[in-house]
Amino acid sequence: METKTARGNHIQRSWDLPDSAITPEEYYRGRREFLRVFGLGVAATVLLPPRVRAHSAALNDSLNPTYKLDGVKLTPEELVTSYNNFYEWGLAKEQPKEEANRGWKTRPWNIEIGGLCANPRKIDIDDLIKLLGPIERRNYRHRCVEAWSMVIPWDGFPLAKLLDLAQPTPQARYVKFTTFLDPANCPAQRGHDLPWPYTEGLTIAEARNELAFLAVGLYGKPLPNQNGAPIRLVVPWKYGFKSAKSLVKIEFVAEKPQTTWNVLAPNEYGFYANVNPNVDHPRWSQKSERVIGAGFFSGKQPTLVFNGYDKQVAHLYAGMDLRKNF
Predict the structure, then answer these.
(1) What pTM was computed for the model?
(2) CA–CA separation, 168 and 158 (whole Å)
């Protein structure tokens, strides 16, 4: 699926899946309007011919049977790579695929690991993959805060492996994730209304959970730019905005880090952001979700607590008021 927008001219492909057909319009427009109010100006796309994209080389991955999700249909690769929220590249779902592939490079790419840890370092992404490998595949449910969902086969390694490499000190209680800053290439980052670069955070216990994952690919191929190349966080029991893309820094800190959406609207986007059908977003219900790729007439499916991963993560929040700590 590919849609190109250029100064108001829209080319509709026959296989396009429009936003209005997938995400309830009030949800989709709600976040757009929120960003508009905060003054995010997205530069108009220049008229350029479609970029010829080479096929990515396959990853030497192996499916971890623990995370196979038997009986669950994977979202088609073409939808996973063309229906994206990645606001550095624009507000519309189709913009990241187009804008992030106009010459933006994700090799070479360095990641800084630091803060309260015994083994800080700055390391090239490919060297990090060698250290933390082998790469494995995990099929994870993905639930967006906008009330749509996918099932994605990620390739990568457990986040706990990176913690073992860095050896955070006892004073470290949180992990802060910082994404790239490249206003020369990213239209939205040329403004200053959002607190770029994008930041996110987890508790140390969440980061060590078996589900927390660093993805470097999907569907057996390196991550496309629009999906967070070359490395992104994946925390499947939380809403998708917690899974920060295109990471450049991972820090171990003592205090709860400020995170982008929580700073912008703390009453709408909590720090924990655990999927919870019993806690609605102030502007829409979270009790059900629309499944991307399921068809126009498939209806919605009920949303599961912790996105269906309660057995793996519920103990992390024992005794916590999940309505207050949403």
Answers:
(1) 0.85
(2) 16
